[in-house]
Write a structure and sequence with these properties.
The chain is α/β, with parallel strands linked by helices. The protein has 15 helices and 14 strands.
Length: 432
């Protein structure tokens, strides 16, 4: 198949797990014999167009008007980005190797930030749209939409799921969340989990030794890896550090990642007087991150909201014991006593107990790690994920053809979203 993929993240522009997901899926589809074009935003020193790892990459440069990528100007930045993304994608279509009248078989959009471009391309190219929802605005705020901007983002997410022929999500939890939030019909939402290249997370002994030398101390090494945002729960890990340090002298806690909450988290560490114990490294990738995970005595995933929890799989592949909050998709991979230990989200005491157990019981930690890695290899390999994704593409194409007559006839007016007040995930929401 000929796939046009839209994403606001793609190497070298990486913010979180979305970019890693899109990159791995694109390259796995190419390996399976499909043609993939990724249209994404431009990054410093990256070429505007290239073919790399078999994937055609077209990068959209920013237009001259200045819209900073920040909370205050996020919606303006998104609109400007989508203008540039649409032009880049139309250029990609015009110069594609496929038939001139149908250069792509499907458009695959990743999250709300590319919605306007995705909908435009769906109608301009006359091909079905698949949307992967990696997270939702309501989910990130525990069901609430506190500000007008949050409500705007939610409405764009709804529009993307409405326009998509099929909606892909990464966990059974996300299927429930997305179906509930956007009132999607049964069968439209499909679970295709994220994948892991297990061998890529088995670094060389030199990389592991370098991580131990750089980050380790005289005691155990505990690691968090991911974005530094409220819903990831890093504040709960920091709150547990004093108790863990008392039980494990020489403890080192490494916070590997970056994000808007970094400064606030560093202030928390200073207030709790744990700055000598907790180190903030910034964003790590490649062998550096794999080496750190492989060197860890425990990987903590303390998320309060987590659609999937890719880092838990990566840690398992690297050989790190996992302690994870029983939140969202994390609970589907980290099975207590089988592939890791779990604790209720935001429960600092339970978090400390789970980490303490893994640090104190080496036999248990080794057993859980062995079982978790076996599960990753058996069920989360990227070739299998790519195959399931192609099946979803094919079903979308078939559905589109079946409905083309109705669409050509006009299909009736499109509904408008009405965003309810209240908590959208607890049944407490009411129409405004």
């Amino acid at each position: 198949m000929r796939v046009l993929m839209l994403s606001w993240e793609y190497p070298p522009v990486m913010v979180g797990g979305l970019g890693r997901h899109v990159h791995a899926l694109a390259t796995s589809l190419v390996t399976a014999g499909h043609h993939v074009t990724v249209v994404t935003r431009h990054g410093a020193d990256a070429p505007l167009e290239e073919e790399f790892e078999g994937v055609r990459i077209v990068r959209a440069p920013e237009d001259p008007p200045l819209f900073p990528l920040s909370n205050d100007t996020l919606l303006a930045w998104t609109m400007a980005f989508n203008h540039a993304l649409t032009r880049a994608a139309l250029h990609a279509a015009k110069t594609a190797d496929g038939p001139h009248n149908r250069p792509f078989d499907i458009v695959h959009a990743h999250d709300w930030l590319v919605t306007h471009a995705a909908v435009t391309l769906k109608h301009s190219l006359g091909v079905p749209l698949i949307a992967t929802i990696h997270a939702t605005e309501a989910g990130r705020h525990q069901g609430w939409l506190p500000e007008q901007m949050n409500r705007c983002v939610h409405s764009v997410e709804w529009w993307l799921t409405y326009e998509a022929r099929r909606v892909l999500v990464c966990s059974a939890y996300m299927r429930w969340e997305v179906s509930r939030l956007f009132d999607l019909p049964r069968g439209k939402v499909e679970v295709i989990c994220n994948g892991v290249h297990a061998e890529a997370w088995r670094p060389s002994p030199r990389a592991v030794a370098a991580a131990r030398s750089r980050f380790g101390g005289e005691g155990p090494l505990v690691v968090y890896a991911g974005r530094l945002v409220y819903e990831k729960g890093v504040q709960d890990l920091l709150a547990a550090v004093p108790a863990l340090r008392d039980r494990h002298p020489g403890l080192r806690v490494v916070i590997a990642g970056d994000g808007p909450h970094r400064e606030g988290l560093e202030q928390i560490a200073r207030r709790r007087r744990i700055r000598r114990t907790a180190a903030f490294t910034g964003f790590l990738e490649g062998d550096e991150l794999a080496g750190l995970l492989a060197a860890a005595d425990c990987l903590v995933a303390p998320s309060r909201y987590e659609p999937f929890g890719m880092v838990a799989l990566e840690a398992a592949a690297a050989g790190a014991p996992v302690a994870a909050a029983s939140a969202g998709g994390l609970a589907e991979f980290v099975q207590p006593g089988i592939t890791g230990l779990t604790f209720p989200a935001a429960d600092v005491g339970a978090l400390a107990e789970a980490v303490d157990t893994l640090l104190s019981d080496e036999v248990l930690a080794r057993r859980l790690t062995r079982q978790a890695r076996a599960l990753v290899i058996r069920e989360y390999a990227w070739p299998a994920i790519a195959e399931r994704t192609v099946s979803a593409y094919q079903r979308a194409v078939t559905d589109e053809r079946a409905l083309s007559a109705r669409v050509a006839a006009g299909g009736g007016p499109r509904p408008r979203i009405v965003v309810p007040n209240g908590n959208l995930l607890t049944g407490e929401a009411a129409s405004p």
